[in-house]
Amino acid sequence: MPAPLIWQKSSFSGGGEGNACLEIAASAKTLQLRESDEPTITLTTTPPGLQALIHSLRPET
Asked: Contact, 43 vs 25, CB < 8 A?
């Protein structure tokens, strides 16, 4: 049986009362992403896949 995922909130979520934040959990080979207000819907990716997404979203300096 796989170990339960440990979800962590994004550092950009702030400390407010709302549930609108991004959470991430790591397993052996993948990363799971979800919004805290929709915890049953997850996106599965790999570390290189998430790195490519973040790189493509960052504005060029």
From this structure: no
Per residue of the chain (61 residues), what is the pLDDT tens digit? 778 899 998 776 666 566 578 899 998 899 999 988 888 999 999 999 999 988 998 877 6
Model-level pTM?
0.71
DSSP 9-51: E-GGG-S-S----EEEEE-SS-EEEEETTSTT--EEE-HHHHH
* Rounded-to-integer distance, Cα 57 and Cα 2, Å: 32
Distances (CA, A) of 36 to 1, 6, 8, 21, 59: 25, 13, 10, 6, 26
